Amino acid sequence: MKPAPFEYVRPSSVAEAVATLEAHGGMARVLAGGQSLVPMLGMRLMRPSAVVDINGLDAELGQIEARGAETTIGALVRYSEAEASPVIAERLPLLRTAIRYIGDRQVRNRGTLCGAVAQSDPTGEVALVALTLGATVVAQGPGGVRELAADGFFVGSYANALAPEEMITGLRFGVVPARGAFFERGRKHNDFALLSLAVAATPEPDGSWRDVRVGMGGINDTPVLARAAAARLEGQRWDEAALAEAAQLALEDADPPEDVRASAEYRAHLLPIHLRRLLLSLVEEPRHG
Ligand SMILES: Cc1cc2nc3c(=O)[nH]c(=O)nc-3n(C[C@H](O)[C@H](O)[C@H](O)COP(=O)(O)OP(=O)(O)OC[C@H]3O[C@@H](n4cnc5c(N)ncnc54)[C@H](O)[C@@H]3O)c2cc1C
After folding, report:
1. pLDDT in tens, 75-89
2. Alpha-carbon distance 35 to 41, whole Å?
3. 214 C-alpha vs ligand 1 centroid, how far in Å?
4. Which domain, by its residues, includes 165?
5. Centroid of ligand 1 to alpha carbon of 249 (angstroms)
6. Pairing mode, if any, of strands 209-217 and 224-225?
7. Nearest to 202 by CA among 247, 171, 252, 238
8. Ligand 1 pocket, 251 CB below 6 A?
9. Pick from 232, 249, 251, 215: nearest CA to 131
10. pLDDT of 159-188, one tens digit each?
11. Which of 115, 143, 173 is the last residue of a domain?
12. For ligand 1, is residue 120 a contact (CB within 6 Å)?
């Protein structure tokens, strides 16, 4: 199919992009990498009145910035740029690992991290890492700049807290735990994940762990934090019993979907098994993996 007619706008600044979104009363859509938007237009799953192509705004949106303890990824930073960035490798290795699970090289050359956050796919890798690491979504709208915590940003399947006249300008991360690990299981590469997991924590000299974060994707209609599991492990030494208990507690925050890819029962079966293994890898691995 071909897209329904729309006005094509290529703004020369973020302010102009926002003004266009406002002028269209929330019926316009931002075009970043186009890896999700273009297929949705083609299938007429979306019929925006205008497409606001932000690809000319590299000067405002194309940077990865390390400022003090914070790292900000602009809305035009492509997956492949983040993957190759020494700043991301040093400061956000968990994000770098997760990006490698996304699509294929062509998708990663065009798709943007902020586009993925805006897309809010419940199986999306960037959304999951942003939630797990407590990132902040920076948005600009007619009322100015808004900062939205990733925890609370994802409100449903492909739905988020962004207003229709707002656009994301960046994704900001603070200091992250010393260790992290990522897991994903799909039916095949490039398919939607049945289950994805991101864990992060910092080991203390006495053998205990602090700042424990456990994120789960594909197991609910949004990426979710396994809060009970993380609480079980916070400040504790992670022996076999603690890890097994935490892995079971993760089910408290899961409401696995039933779809053509897997039954809810199968997803619930996979979760504690792979979470326990992933947590164990943090203990065994000296670095992010
Ligand atoms: C073959 C294939 C495989 C894929 N595999 C995966 C995968 O494994 N994991 C995964 O997460 N994704 C996957 N995707 C989707 C891909 O990652 C998209 O690139 C990503 O979801 C959106 O990024 P984008 O820059 O392409 O956004 P676009 O397609 O341009 O936009 C996506 C949506 O976000 C909105 N949007 C984009 N940028 C902004 C912004 N700055 N502010 C406000 N709204 C914005 C758009 O209006 C649109 O609604 C795949 C896509 C393809 C085609």
Report:
1. 999 999 999 999 999
2. 11
3. 24
4. 63-173
5. 32
6. antiparallel
7. 238
8. no
9. 215
10. 999 999 999 999 999 999 999 999 999 998
11. 173
12. no
